[in-house]
Amino acid sequence: MTHPVVHFEIGTKDGERAGAFYRDLFGWQLEPAGPGYSLISPQDGGIGGGLMEATEDIPTYVTVYVQVEDLRASLDRAVALGGAVAVEPMPIEGVGSFALFQDPDGNTIGLMQTAGASS
């Protein structure tokens, strides 16, 4: 199986300001999806994403999420290749699970496993 980029995410200090900025700049449609989080609808063949308000524990960031069949195996492989686990697998209700790792240069990349895939 290929591992496509299936989601992007932007962590920002001010969700309302950032939402207005991206809506005005790119015409993105944002839909509230929980406290401090909005989904960005896919447009014109592009992928959808999310806009998340950063906290004291979560700095601002931009990342992509790659779809995998097995989060644990993918994280273990990333570590074996010189990366590091940033966030252990966590469930997303009705969607599946996600995890984050850092590549050898410190870039943070997300992994997505859809509901029903092996774990």
Q: What tags apply to this protein structure?
A:
119 residues; alpha+beta; 2,3-Dihydroxybiphenyl 1,2-Dioxygenase, domain 1; 2 domains; eight-stranded mixed β-sheet; 2 helices; 8 strands; 18% helix; globular
Q: Explain this structure to me?
A:
This protein is an alpha+beta fold and 119 residues long. The chain has 2 domains: 1-62, 2,3-Dihydroxybiphenyl 1,2-Dioxygenase, domain 1, CATH 3.10.180; 68-119, Roll (2,3-Dihydroxybiphenyl 1,2-Dioxygenase, domain 1). It contains 2 helices and 8 strands; from the N terminus they run E-H-E-E-E-E-H-E-E-E. It is globular.
The fold-level CATH name of the largest domain is 2,3-Dihydroxybiphenyl 1,2-Dioxygenase, domain 1
Which structural class best describes the helix and strand composition?
alpha+beta
CATH class designation of the largest domain: Alpha Beta
User: Could you report the average pLDDT, rounded to the nearest whole number?
Assistant: 92
Domain VOC: 4-114
Organism: Actinokineospora fastidiosa
Protein name: VOC domain-containing protein
InterPro entries: Anthracycline_SecMetBiosynth, Glyas_Bleomycin-R_OHBP_Dase, Glyas_Fos-R_dOase_dom, VOC_core
